[in-house]
C-alpha cells in the first residue's frame, strides 16, 4: 500500500518572495530510486518547470524532495501536494500556502472644476482584503466619502476614496491619507497634499503640456524648411540680376549715345560729297573731249 509521506502543513509568505515545499519520505537506497511529482489543489495535472520557469524541483537527499517557487504571486496561494513513486509509493499530506501583498503607498489626486473640486486617495495591489483607509482635511477626519474597491485578475485589490467639495477650496488647505494593512504591521503608510494657487486638474495640466510639446515640435520641423526656402529665393534673385547685367552689357556694345551716332554721320557725309565731286570732275573732261571731236568733224 501507499507509504505515508509527510509535508509541513502551512507556509506564509509575501508577494515577490520565495518559498520551499518539502516532501518527507522514509529513507531510500538512493535519490534516483524514487520519482517525485507535485500538483496544486484539485488539479491532478502535475506541475512542470517547462511551463513555469519559477518552479524548481529537486531530490537533495534520500529522505526528502523539495519544490521551490520563486517570485511569488497572490494567485499562487493554495494547497500543494507531492506524489512519490518508485521504491516507495505515496501521496503527501499537503501544504497550504498563503500569499499576502502589501498596499502601495497611497496617492492623493484632484479632478473636476475649481468651483467644486474632487479630492481622492488611492492605493493598489494588496491582499488579503483587510484594508483600512482614513482621509483627513486639515487634520479633521472626513466621513462623507465615496469608496470604490476592485478585484484584479491577479487576485489583488485596489481601493480608492473620494470627497466632492461643494465650493472652492482655500489655498493652503491640507489633505492627508493613511492606509493600514496586516502586512504593514504597526507602520501604516501615509501621504499629505496641500492645495496650491491656481491649481488645475491633472488632466488639464497634462493636456496643456501636450499642446506645448506638439507646438514646439512643429516649429522645429518648419524652421529648416523656411530657412531653405529663403536661401533659394535669395539665390534666384542673384541669378536674375546676373542675367540682367549680361544683357545690358551686350546692349552697350553699340553706340553709347545718340550724339556719338550723329557725330559719326556728320563725318561720313563730307566723304560721300567729295567722292561725288571727284567723279564729276573726272566725267567733265570726257564730255569736253567729245565736244571737241564733234567740232573738228564739222
From TrEMBL:
Primary place of residence? membrane
The membrane topology term of the UniProt record is: Single-pass type I membrane protein
Q: Which GO terms describe its biological process?
A: cell surface receptor signaling pathway; cellular response to lipopolysaccharide; immune response; negative regulation of T cell proliferation; positive regulation of T cell proliferation; T cell costimulation
Localization terms from the record: Cell membrane
- Any transmembrane segments, and where? 206-230
| Origin superkingdom | Eukaryota
Locate the compositionally biased regions of type Polar residues: 264-276
Return the annotated region ranges for Disordered.
Answer: 251-298
Keyword Hydrolase attached: no
Compositional bias per record (Basic residues), positions renumbered to this chain: 278-298
Pfam families found in the cross-reference section: C1-set, I-set
Q: Which keywords describe this protein according to UniProt?
A: Cell membrane, Disulfide bond, Glycoprotein, Immunoglobulin domain, Membrane, Receptor, Signal, Transmembrane, Transmembrane helix
Which Gene Ontology terms of cellular component type are present?
Answer: external side of plasma membrane
All residue ranges annotated as the Ig-like domain in the record: 2-100
Q: Does the keyword Manganese apply?
A: no
User: Which SMART domains does this UniProt record tie to the protein?
Assistant: IG
Its protein name is Tapasin-related protein-like protein
